[in-house]
Amino acid sequence: MRKLFLFIACSLDGYIAKNNDDLSFLSTVEKEGEDYGYGKFTDEIDTIIIGRKTFDYVEKNIGIAHYDQPGRRVFVITSVLRPNVGNIHFTNVPINELVEELKNQEGKGIYCDGGAQIIDALLQYDMIDEMIISIVPILLGEGTRLFKDHRPEQVLEFISSKSFDTGLVQLHYKRKRI
Question: The pTM is what?
Answer without folding.
Answer: 0.93
